[in-house]
Design a protein that fits this description.
With 314 residues, the chain is mainly α. The chain has ten helices and two strands. It has a two-stranded antiparallel sheet. The termini are far apart. It is found in: Membrane.
Length: 314
């Protein structure tokens, strides 16, 4: 009974903490700007008296970056897809049916040819370039949001000891996250009613929690193994934390639309993760990341051995 209570408390605390970013967003810029003003540099006018230099206001851009992300991913990207699929395509279909109304069979044949052509053209000319552009721009904006929030709460980031270590950790993290996403897709195919879907949801909750907290942990100098172990050891809290974003992104059937939804709401979860204090002390660690970490280690080891053998042969 105590374990169930502890699990429930951790789950609910994680869920509530994940929503804190909404309120943080309303006052964070003001606090950052006020602190910047209060810490404006001072210089000695003479040996006895000090005069403050004119205060230079350094405007925080957290709210601006969040709004820019919403505009790019919501009003430009997502809205254009919805307008094309639910307004423009039905209108074109209606025109085809009107033009060839005398022969419904011809109308259906023409539309059966036009629809995939229009979809492919729209996706190649508009969706794919904008998707790649949004990924690049979002990564810069998300990093800007995370760094501003971290410096305000914790001061200067404590990066890892060397640039090579940072690069290796980042590459290994990307590989682990990609394999973990594949693992979540595989467990969703389990032929057990609701079990596969539940396991997939838990995977996505933990993955989105990792995304949200990784900015803070990286700035704290935590290596990937420490970040993953912390999530596995305190998984009830992180399941609750990632639950809102996991549910929101699973509602759309389209991967592209799901990505837009993620990009719209994710900045709020970055702020929530920066403010949150996770509940620790779970009795039963959930080692869901361990399989993909083992596979990633094997792949890196294989690549390193291959590179060493090529070097020796030269």
């Amino acid at each position: 009974m105590e374990s169930i209570t502890s699990f429930s408390v951790s789950l609910i605390k994680g869920f509530v903490d994940s929503l804190r970013g909404v309120t943080v967003l309303l006052y964070l810029d003001k606090e950052i700007n006020e602190r910047a003003l209060s810490r404006s540099p001072q210089t000695d006018a003479d040996s006895k008296h000090k005069q403050k230099q004119p205060k230079v206001r350094q405007e925080s851009k957290v709210l601006t970056r969040v709004l820019q992300s919403c505009i790019l991913n919501g009003f430009i990207f997502l809205l254009s897809i919805l307008v094309f699929e639910y307004v423009l395509l039905p209108a074109i279909k209606y025109l085809v049916m009107v033009i060839f109304g005398h022969d419904p069979g011809v109308a259906h044949n023409v539309w059966a040819w036009m629809q995939p052509f229009l979809l492919m053209t729209f996706r190649m000319i508009w969706v794919l370039p904008l998707f790649l552009l949004s990924k690049l721009v979002n990564s810069l904006w998300f990093q800007d949001i995370a760094d501003s929030a971290y410096r305000h709460r914790r001061g200067r980031p404590q990066f890892m000891s060397s640039v090579s270590k940072i690069i290796a950790d980042s590459l290994f993290s990307l590989l682990v996250q990609a394999l973990f996403l594949v693992q979540s897709m595989l467990v969703s195919m389990l032929p057990l009613t609701y079990v596969g879907e539940l396991l997939c949801l838990i995977h996505m909750c933990l993955l989105y929690s990792l995304y949200s907290f990784e900015y803070k942990w990286f700035n704290m100098g935590w290596e990937l193994h420490k970040r993953l172990t912390f999530i596995e050891s305190n998984w009830p809290y992180f399941v609750g934390f990632g639950l809102p974003l996991a549910v929101l992104t699973q509602i759309p059937q389209s991967y592209i639309i799901s990505g837009c939804v993620f990009s719209i709401f994710f900045p709020v979860f970055i702020l929530s993760g920066n403010e949150a204090t996770p509940v620790v002390g779970s009795e039963y660690p959930l080692k869901l990341f361990s399989p993909v970490v083992a596979i990633s280690n094997g792949m890196f080891r294989f690549v390193r051995q291959g590179a060493e053998s090529v070097t020796q042969n030269r």
